[in-house]
Each structure stands twice: as C-alpha cells, then as structure tokens.
C-alpha cells in the first residue's frame, strides 16, 4: 500500500511535466490536432490509417504536425515506408517480441552437454525439442527446447551428421561408406534408429522437397530418397558435376547444394541435374534460406557470407567482417541470420532484411561453434573442439 | 567430421585459383547507380534485398519518380508476401517445402474415429465421440485420453480450457482442464439444442451450431449447469460456427447458406452458398466457405466485414468439400470426394491454388492448423495425420 500511495503523486507530477513540455516545445504533447498530431489530415475516413502508420513508426509526417496528405509519393520515399513496414511487422510478429525476449543474444541461455568426444554436427528443431546428430557418439540426442534438458538419446546412428524434421519424423543421415539414412519416430520411446536406406558415401547436409529427401555426399554425389511404406526406400544417387557436396537446402522451388570441395553453389532440378552454378570465393558450408535469399557461409582467403537471390541465382552481396572467420553454417530465425565461425569461436548475427551486421560475439565457450538452427525464438548452435570440456549444444 | 576443416582449406585454395570473384554490388547504392542520397540508401537496399523491388533496370531505381496505384499494388503485395513468409513458424524451422502426402508416416492412431481437432499451440485435442485425445504436435505422441463426453464431436480451445460439444438430443457441452491429470470430462450442460456440431467463442460466450435446427449460446459461470440460450428462428441445419472478431457466422447445410448473427443470435445477413455449406475458416479478413451441390463443388471467399462474395473457387481438387482451416498463409480445404478424398491448398492472400493431395479412399472429416502443420481426421480410419 505504501508504494501505491507514493506512486500516485509521482504520476501526477510526471503528467504535469509532460504537459508543460508540450506547451513549451509544441511537440511530444497529447494528440490534439485534426488527426493525431497532424493538422492537415481532414478526411476522417483516412485518419485511422494515417494514425496506424504513425503509431507503427512507418511515417513521421513531413513535420511534427503535418502529413501532407495530397502529395504524391516518390519511389525513394516509398522505399522508406515499405522498409519500415517490413521491419515493424516482423518485429511485432516475432515470437521473441511476444515472449519479451528482445535482448541481444550475447551469451548462451543454456543448452545441453554431451561427453567430450560427441562431436555434435547438424541439428533441427521440431518446434518443441531440438534433435542433434552426435557424429562421434553414433547417436541422436533429443534436447527439450524450453530448458535444454537432454530428454533422449537414440543409438545406432553410425557417423550421424545431418538432421531433418519432416513428415512428422526425424530423419538422420550418416557420414559413412556408404552413407546411410535413418528415421526416428519421435512418438515412440527412445531406442535404436530405424535404417531406411543406404546413400552415396559421406552423406552430410540433408533437406526435403515435400516428397523426397536429398543428401549432399562429400564423396562427390547427391542422393535422392523417396519415402515409402516399406524399407529400404528407393534412392537415386547423382554424381554428374559434383566434387564434394556438403550442404543442402530447399527454397520452395529447387534444391541447392554447396560443393565444399570445388567452391561452387549449385541449383538443381527435380532429377538432381545442375541447373545453375554460382562460384564462391572459398569453401561453402551449410547454407540457410530466408524466404528470398540464400546465405552461404564461405571459408576462403577472406571469410565471407554469400547472399544469393534464390529465384535468379544472382549474388546480392558478399558479406565480410562482423568477425567472420572460418564460417561453417548459417541459420535464419525469421528476422536474423546467425553464422558460426569455427576457429575464433565466434557467432555473427546479420539482419536478414538489409544484410547489415547486428553483432558478433564469443559465446563464452571453449568449444568451436559448428552448425546452427532456429526454433523461432532461439538459435541453437552445436559446438565441439577441445578435449577439456564436454561438447555442447547451446541456445542463444 | 573434423576432416572437413582440411577439406575446406583445400577447397578454398582451389576456388581462389580457378574461379573469378563473385559478383558484388558496385553501384552508388547496392546495384543502383542513381540513388545518391545516403540517408535513403539503406531503405532502398532493404526492399531490394527482400525482393519487393527489382529496380526499373538492374542498375537503376529511378528514385524521384512517383508511384502509381498500379505499381503500389505490386509493392504492397510483395511486402505482405515477404513478411508473411519470413514471419511464419515454418520459415524459422527451415521448412519451405509444400505440404504433401504423409507417405505412411506422421500418422497418429487414435483410440477411435477422430471428429473435430483443434490446437492449443502445443498439443492437438481430438474429439472421438466419447473419448478426447491429447496429441503432442511436435512428435504426434498420444499423451492422454479423457472420457465421459458422450457424442463428443466439436472441439473448442478457449479460456485455458478444452470444450467439447456432445452430438446428442438435447445437445451437451463438456469441459476439461488440460492442467489436470486425464480423467472424465465435466458436463457443463445437457440442455443445448439438438445435435451440436461445431463450436466457437466470442470472447465471453460459447456458441454451438446445432444440426437439429438451432444455435445455442452458453454463458460460462461459477456454478453448473451453465446458462444456455437456444435460438431457433430462421435456422434449418446449422453445422459450422465461426467468430470473425465482430460477429458469429453460422454455415448451414440445407438450404446451403452462411448467416451473420448479432449478439443475440438473430440473423443479420444471409449469404447463399448455392449448395450445402461446410465448416468455414477465417483468415483475418475473409471467410473461406466450402460448398457443394450435386456435381458442383466450390469454395466461396466471403469478405467478413461486408458479406460480399469475393470469389467462387473451383478445381484444385475441391470435390464435395467439408471444411477449411487457415495457417497464417495458406488455407486447406478438405473434400470427401466422389471417388477419393482430397486436401486442397490455396494461398490465402490472393486466392490462388497451390495444389491438392489425395487421401485415397479415406475421407477427411475435420481439419485445423497449429501454425506449422495442418492436422486432419478421417472417416474411414482412426488416423490423425499431419500435412
């Protein structure tokens, strides 16, 4: 009660200050003009729309008290309005905003630890839990997204590398000779993974096109597996044009493969034939797609992230700096792209909408960040590398 | 796996020796040579990066020209699409593939035929005519089963509770508290109109579309039974019930029509379906109303604010459609089919078809979305499938 009583006069004092400031400065005061602060918007039917884009920060008016409603919009002005619209909507709609987690991702917000030689590789969220391939443990870990608890360990996945959550299943490939494909029915109690087919040697990156599973095989091939009611699933392995594919993703129209050994990025047709080749300046790793553009971490003489328009294959930008060094993998969370840098143990964040660097930081670990995924609220990063600390999956 | 670091270095050298530099943006502002105002350049680059503009030419943006209303339509349309795609839960999980058949996977087997299904954000709740199943969306596991809901058909997630309508005469309404251990549902009322099918909520009261020819309005209270008002005037065979943020709409099977109600259940407006109306979905602006008559199947897109029919959609696998659901970007329409069941997808923002999936002989019954997947129950099996 004490606090309540003392708070009231303070609020009144504050209101008085604001009113005085408004009178003195003519700005920042209550909205008393015809339409909010604007004295020149007289059409009541249009006023709510003008007020909405003012409230959202999409317009600031031509002056603090005018909107200039009858003027035409130039293309330059329109760029500002649309750009702010995208930012405002994405910011408001993001799970991070709704959960009140809008702080920068400076340090790990928990995660799970494995033994010292687990070598966690790729990982994916099913919306609740994160599934992590434990390459050297020959296993797949299920980590609860909300608190980082290690829930289950599925065994029998020799050389587990790539993880895909699709068809209500968790599908994992093995970086072995030959490569292998397993599935996990996450509704069942943890046990041994279910072998569904063999693949090209060194299966690594994995993706899904809505009906078939694609793997990038480092030995120089791409395998395409068709899920069926019985096992083994039918697999087609394509070698033409490939040297050492590593990463794979689907953009809604085509599968893309990064060829780590030849430094190329390939767009494929439905049969695995190369449709388009983009040259990178190094060794491309595991890419991410943001709905419009591919983000391709590239380890070369200059570490960079190549941003490629998926529709055309045009390179929009080659991003450097932001402490990128030996970048391995990228992930998109709806607004931001996270890129892991293996050697300096850094992660770098970019704003996906305009390619600007947000920040980079050492997450305070001794391990090297390797692969990344998002669950919409947090990024998850696998990290390994020293014999001093357990290998980990970290949440940011 | 660590060998890939070495492979990466060799690859880098190879690439440096053999390949030219990747293309970079060399204009004054990204690729554009005519945007000289550095204060505006970041905004132009953002809408270029997002694919909202392509420029007037690859190297020009024409910054000082005005925007026509036609050009503005293209810019706004691309903006909405870009924001919805990026903002979706599917994008953050890297799931850009289309919904397809489950190929025998991702099917949860329930204890009995599934009726209505609704998501609470984490789990699906399925009424199975006397049993209610709770299925975890992330992995499809049946977590618990409740009983005691005789005739349980329609499901509503509201007020932190799960409500189930009992397709009984007179109709029943049940409730379960999802935070409690599974057990027997609580009966809230057995005095609804005959045969409630679908339920909705207006923020205060629960509405049921009763196939016996009425609409019941149930007011939650501290004591049982809850107060029920049943309205019969003007109703024939109500089946679908949906709230658009302002009004409750009821879809009637015969005569096929969609009616907008006032707060007391009186009919304010009637939209003729042209056939039997199925269970509609609302996308925030428009209602999607499945409708069919003999040999003629379609989906009506109805503007909720006015009741105007925007479009009558045919094809795309729509064949005796029963229900619809919206996932933030797409609408799924489920069809019994004259020969095989089907699931049809439409882009909600422009009503364009996105393709359809056959369910074979198993006719789909109810559909909902959890924001990532669509979930469908079937009339010929105990299955709950995700797409």
**Cα-atom radius of gyration of chain A:** 25 Å
Could you give the distance between the termini of chain A? 39 Å
Extended strand count of chain B = 29
What fraction of residues of chain A sit in β-strands?
A: 35-45%
Unreliable residue runs of chain A? 1-30
> How confident overall, as mean pLDDT of chain B?
89
- Protein chains sharing the most extensive interface: A-B, 101 and 84 residues
Oligomer category: heterodimer
CATH class of the largest domain in chain B: Mainly Beta
Separate helix tally of chain A? 4
Tell me the total number of β-strands of chain A: 29
Q: Could you outline the blueprint of secondary structure elements for this entry?
A:
The complex is a heterodimer of chains A (396) and B (387).
Chain A: H1 2-25, H2 47-55, H3 75-93, H4 95-98, E1 111-113, E2 120-125, E3 129-134, E4 139-144, E5 150-155, E6 160-166, E7 169-174, E8 179-184, E9 194-199, E10 203-208, E11 213-217, E12 221-226, E13 234-238, E14 245-250, E15 255-259, E16 264-268, E17 274-279, E18 283-284, E19 288-289, E20 293-299, E21 304-309, E22 315-319, E23 327-332, E24 336-341, E25 346-351, E26 357-361, E27 368-374, E28 379-384, E29 392-395
Chain B: H1 3-18, H2 41-49, H3 69-87, H4 89-92, E1 107-109, E2 117-119, E3 123-127, E4 131-136, E5 142-147, E6 152-158, E7 161-166, E8 171-176, E9 186-192, E10 196-201, E11 206-210, E12 214-219, E13 227-231, E14 238-243, E15 248-252, E16 257-261, E17 267-272, E18 276-277, E19 281-282, E20 286-293, E21 296-303, E22 309-313, E23 321-326, E24 330-335, E25 341-347, E26 353-360, E27 364-369, E28 374-378, E29 383-386
List keywords for this structure.
A: 396 residues, mainly beta, 5-stranded antiparallel beta sheet, 4-stranded antiparallel beta sheet, 4 helices, globular, B: 387 residues, Methylamine Dehydrogenase, Chain H, 2 domains, 29 strands
Describe what this molecule looks like in 3D:
- The complex is a heterodimer of chains A (396) and B (387).
- Chain A contains 4 helices and 29 strands.
- Chain A is globular and about 75 Å long.
- In chain A, strands 18, 19, 20, 21 and 22 form a 5-stranded antiparallel β-sheet that branches. Chain A has a 4-stranded antiparallel β-sheet with strand order 1-29-28-27, with no helix packed on it. Chain A has a 4-stranded antiparallel β-sheet with strand order 2-3-4-5, with no helix packed on it.
- In chain A, a hairpin with a 3-residue loop joins strand 2 and strand 3.
- With 396 residues, chain A is mainly β.
- Chain B is mostly beta strands and 387 residues long.
- Chain B folds into 2 domains: 74 residues, no CATH class; 285 residues, 7 Propeller (Methylamine Dehydrogenase, Chain H), CATH 2.130.10.
- Chain B is built from 4 helices and 29 strands.
- In chain B, the strands form 7 sheets. In chain B, strands 18, 19, 20, 21 and 22 form a 5-stranded antiparallel β-sheet that branches. A 4-stranded antiparallel β-sheet of chain B has the order 1-29-28-27, with no helix packed on it. In chain B, strands 2-3-4-5 form a 4-stranded antiparallel β-sheet, with no helix packed on it.
- In chain B, strand 11 and strand 12 form a beta hairpin.
- The two termini of chain B are 34 Å apart.
- The N terminus of chain B is likely disordered.
- At the A-B interface, helix 3, strand 2, strand 6, strand 14 and strand 19 of A face helix 1, helix 2, helix 3 and helix 4 of B.
